[in-house]
Amino acid sequence: MKEYHPPLGSREAMRLDFNENTIECSPRVRDRLAQISAGALTRYPEREPVEAIVAAHLGLRAEQVALTNGVDEAIHVLFETFLEAGDEVLMPVPTYTMYEVYASATDARVVTVQAADDLQFPFDRLVAGITSQTKVIAIANPNSPSGSVATREQLLELARRAPQAVLLVDEAYFHFFGETIMDLVGTLPNLVVARTFSKAYGLAGLRLGLLAGPVDLMRWVRRVLSPYSVNSLALACLPPALEDTAYLNWYAGEVLAARAEFEAALDAAGVRRWPSRANFVLVDIGARHAEFVRLMRDAGVLVRDRSRDPGCDGRVRITIGTRAQMKQAVTALNSALSALQTGGETR
Fold first, then answer.
1. Is residue 327 helix, strand or coil?
2. Are 228 and 253 members of one domain?
3. How far apart are alpha carbons 88 and 107 in whole angstroms?
4. Across the chain, which distance is largest between two alpha carbons, in Å?
5. Distance (Å, rounded) from C-alpha 159 to C-alpha 136?
6. What's the count of helices (H) and strands (E) in the chain, helices before strands?
7. Whole-model pTM above 0.90?
8. Whole-angstrom Cα distance, residue 196 to residue 157?
9. Strand partners for 280
């Protein structure tokens, strides 16, 4: 069984390593937290009223939406619901590590399709990998760690080519991409969309995600989903987070502006990067990637070494924060690159 080992140690620095919101959640969420009484914490949480609010926000029916303890639980529950011994789960790599972790916890076979060096979505090879045993196809859109995307037409074709499979489209980075197939939920019989509130919304510490799909598929999901896995604090804070569209739009816009400036700085420094439609950029540091990550940490900037991902040797993922934060990151990056080039920092 594949295991996930998150980086350990203090994260008291500029957090450009986990693709989180790098500053704070909406002030409306902060206000709501301050209003929660001690007595409110004595009751078991009720997710259904908030699911109805979220469904209305997405233009869906309440029965089509299930809130989860982060998108990780969403993936876990989906795989446990629809994968059995002898089934196959198909996914491109590199991609979000937890797909393979949760798939390997079932008796299904994990089938991976390696992207080319450009890390673009390997659509043709994925289509070729579909078999009668394919029961789940997992696609992160945009993908991590590459930042690449699949087109709407490609996703539709995958759903058509594998009618026996659930097509999971994980839109964790939707707010930085702006394109979705959420509008097709309930139209495509095998489409399930996942979202998280850990990125743009800044609620990673509350652990909130969702699955949205056809009513008949969601009935099976709810049989596996724990009724109390989403806590009361998260449920109380989600409605004001959804209401504060001004904050959400500001933060997403700030990240997109910062990404453009940071990409320009990478180009000026001669650092190879991959085009990204998310709140991070993957860069090629080369053989001394571990030293680079250490130098950045020493400068107060945390970044994520992705060299163990398939086809990513020497590559580092850098989360995009605000423009002010990324200016500091550029200073740290240029200093680290200079140290590596001169050989002044070696181990």
1. helix
2. no
3. 9
4. 61
5. 10
6. 12, 12
7. yes
8. 25
9. 319
Q: What is the pLDDT of residues 109-164, one digit of tens each?
A: 999 999 999 999 999 999 999 999 999 999 999 999 999 999 999 999 999 999 99
How far, in Å, CA of 201 to CA of 22, rounded?
A: 10
Domain at 69, CATH number: 3.40.640.10
Query: Any idea of the CA torsion for 196, 197, 201, 203, to the nearest 10 degrees?
Result: -140
pLDDT tens digits for range 33-88 = 999 999 999 999 999 999 999 999 999 999 999 999 999 999 999 999 999 999 99
Count CB atoms within 10 A of the CB of residue 223.
9
8 Å CB contact between 90 and 138 = yes
Q: Which residue has the tokens 């680079």?
A: 292
Where does a domain end: 188, 208, 243?
243
In Å, how far are 144, 195, 273 from 92, measured between CA atoms?
Answer: 11, 19, 20
Strand partners, 113: 92
**98 and 208 share one domain:** yes
Same domain, 149 and 52: yes
Domain identity same for 209 and 280: no
Please state whether the peptide bond connecting residue 27 to the residue before it is cis, i.e. omega within 30 degrees of 0.
Answer: no
- At 337 the three-state DSSP class reads helix
Domain with 69, as residue range(s), is 27-243
Same domain flag for 235 and 263: no
Q: Give the H or E element holding residue 91.
A: strand 88-93
Where would I find the H helices in the chain?
Answer: 27-35, 48-58, 70-82, 97-104, 123-129, 152-161, 174-177, 215-224, 232-243, 245-269, 289-298, 323-342
Q: Specify which residues 317 forms β-bridges with.
A: 282, 304
Domain count, the chain: 2
**Strand, helix or coil at 47?**
coil
Say yes or no: 223 and 134 in one domain: yes
Distance CA 126, CA 106 (A): 21
CATH number of 265's domain? 3.90.1150.10
In a domain, 265, yes or no: yes
CA–CA separation, 246 and 249 (whole Å): 5
CB 136 within 8 A of CB 166: yes
What are the structure tokens assigned to 190, written together?
């095998």
